[in-house]
Fold this protein.
Amino acid sequence: MMIKSLTRINELAKKQREQGLTDIEKEEQHVLRQEYLREIRGQVLHTFSRLTVVDAEGNDVTPEKLKNDKENGFLIE
């Protein structure tokens, strides 16, 4: 899944390297990077919410904390 703001983040990074950014562009870059990090963290949490740990014999050995968090909906966006 492509994050929509990634294209603009890359455009600003390239401009920063080549010419520098205005104060407004620096603020935009900061806001976009924060949104990007928030989305990445959400994707990671979503992945963990579906995680089950299985040992070599096929037994579910998912840590209790993860099981509880999944049951209580703490990991789902």
Observations:
- Helices lie at 6-18, 23-49, 64-72.
- Residues 23-49 form the longest helix (27 residues).
